[in-house]
Design a protein that fits this description.
With about 160 residues, the chain is mainly beta. It contains 1 helix and 12 strands; from the N terminus they run αββββββββββββ. The strands form 3 sheets. Strands 5, 6, 7, 9 and 12 form a 5-stranded antiparallel β-sheet that branches. Keywords: Signal.
Length: about 160
Amino acid sequence: MLLSAKILVLVALSASLGEAVAQPACTPVVRVLHGNLEIPATGSALLPRVTLQVTPDAACPNAVRYQFRSAELTLVRRGRPLLPAIRAHQPQVDFTAWMQVYEPGDRIHIFIPYQHVVMVTANGVAQLYQPPTQAQVQGKKFDLRTDQAKGISFNWLLTQK
């Protein structure tokens, strides 16, 4: 009798605190767009303006959308930053300052820390994305020392001018 009363109290408390949202077992992906065309990581020329988009990977349900609070974009040459990084707080990014500086073979490393990724469910509930735990990635290629454990990234190889 006492146990059932405690369960009723817990159910009532959880109902009064609002809706709980389960985290889907999927990882968001960074996409770079120019107009409606996706820029491949395998290479393209630097474009003056692009749009960053965080989307669910193919295994995720369609009801999940992602947003980001900030992203760090770094122009890299031979493994080292060439210029100070750009911190983007909105999806549109302006690269006009980098247009005269970049060379074919440079890369733009785009990194969004997990704490800057927000998951929005179909019913409009927003919550911070929770990164995968070691237990969730058991048996998969996942190194806790890399960017993969800290956020999502995109490496854009820059080709001809």
